[in-house]
């Protein structure tokens, strides 16, 4: 009887110890700690060299729309092509890697570059002093012309100042939208040039500001479209935006070297002639 009581008491004590003992804390391993360390490094930019990362990876991640002819678009076979696709391949070749194109809506392109999701963007991105506060830009590789386009029946709008109180269609955060807003227009945001022209033809907007090269390309494919160009002005120089900071300094320098070499040996001019029908690589 005594022996049974002793055994029972011992069992109860053991159970209490097991129930009250603190649970073991998993040891932080390299595998679990690494993501946090990487995230911290990405946020601070410390000890990162994006150029080295690109070369170690073997690919450069390039953001573009894929729906803005002749800059980036899909041909009749569905293949991604365009002026900036070739610029992207040219840069990738110069870096000694392959280009990996990431198609996304315009309003996600710069945000993706800023976050580091993309290494750079090739999509006719205009350089502005405001954008340069947030991104590191390459040297310009083309200089564009901006045109004001209206429905063929519209006689009210003849110049930029006539946009006050009117509606325009443009991509959000584009330099074209900014110019329209500065002129007093209400901007209706769209994702593609096709949507822009559709809204203009349907009378849902009064006008659009856009790259002359894109409008020329649209009219070449749609000669019956009842739109007309009523004004033109200098656009922003086009350059390649990359993440701001020391971590992209070497990358920016290398991209500039590649673009300059292509300018000197005539490759840039040849691509401009191929897609735009004229040499836009020199500032006039």
Please describe the topology of this protein.
Elements: H1 2-20, H2 30-44, H3 50-57, E1 59-64, E2 73-74, E3 80-81, H4 83-95, E4 98-103, H5 106-115, E5 120-121, H6 129-132, E6 135-137, E7 142-151, E8 167-170, H7 175-182, E9 186-189, H8 193-201, E10 207-211, H9 212-221, E11 227-238, E12 241-243, H10 249-264, H11 267-276
Parallel strand pairs: 1-4, 1-5, 8-9
Antiparallel strand pairs: 2-3, 6-12, 7-10, 7-11
Summarize the structure.
By secondary structure, this protein is of the alpha/beta class.
Description:
It is built from eleven helices and twelve strands. It is α/β, with parallel strands linked by helices and 284 residues long. It folds into two domains: 48-141 and 239-276, Periplasmic binding protein-like II (D-Maltodextrin-Binding Protein, domain 2, 3-Layer(aba) Sandwich); 144-236, Periplasmic binding protein-like II (D-Maltodextrin-Binding Protein, domain 2, 3-Layer(aba) Sandwich), CATH 3.40.190.10. Strands 4-1-5 form a three-stranded parallel beta sheet. Strands 10-7-11 form a three-stranded antiparallel beta sheet. A two-stranded antiparallel ribbon has the order 2-3. The radius of gyration is 28 Å and the shape is globular. Mean pLDDT is 86; it is low at 1-41.
Portion of residues in beta strands equals 15-25%
Shape field: globular
Q: How many extended strands?
A: 12
End-to-end Cα distance: 108 Å
Q: Tell me the name of the CATH class of the largest domain.
A: Alpha Beta
Helix content: 40-55%
Mean pLDDT: 86
CATH architecture of the largest domain: 3-Layer(aba) Sandwich
Gyration radius from CA atoms, angstroms: 28 Å
Number of domains: 2
């Amino acid at each position: 009887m005594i022996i049974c009581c002793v055994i029972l008491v011992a069992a109860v004590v053991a159970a209490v110890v097991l129930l009250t003992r603190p649970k073991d804390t998993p040891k932080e391993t390299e595998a679990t700690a690494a993501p946090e360390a990487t995230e911290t490094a990405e946020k601070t930019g410390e000890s990162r060299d994006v150029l080295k990362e690109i070369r170690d990876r073997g690919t450069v991640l390039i953001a573009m729309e894929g729906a803005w002819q002749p800059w980036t678009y899909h041909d009749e076979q569905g293949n991604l092509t365009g002026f900036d696709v070739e610029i992207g391949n040219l840069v990738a070749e110069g870096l000694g890697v392959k280009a990996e194109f990431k198609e996304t809506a315009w309003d996600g392109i710069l945000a993706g570059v800023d976050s580091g999701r993309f290494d750079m963007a090739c999509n006719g991105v205009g350089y502005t002093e405001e954008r340069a506060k947030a991104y590191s830009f390459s040297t310009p590789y083309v200089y564009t012309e901006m045109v004001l386009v209206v429905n063929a029946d519209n006689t009210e709008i003849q110049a930029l100042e006539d946009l006050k109180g009117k509606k325009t269609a443009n991509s959000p955060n584009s330099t074209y939208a900014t110019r329209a807003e500065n002129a007093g227009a209400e901007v209706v945001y769209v994702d593609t040039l096709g949507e822009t022209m559709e809204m203009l033809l349907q009378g849902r907007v009064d006008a659009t500001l856009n790259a002359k090269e894109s409008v020329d390309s649209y009219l070449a494919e749609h000669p019956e479209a009842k739109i007309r160009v009523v004004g033109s002005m200098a656009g922003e120089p086009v350059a390649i935006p990359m993440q701001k900071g020391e971590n992209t300094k070497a990358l920016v320098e290398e991209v500039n070297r590649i673009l300059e070499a292509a300018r000197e040996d005539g490759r840039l001019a040849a691509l401009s002639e191929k897609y735009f029908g004229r040499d836009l690589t020199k500032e006039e």
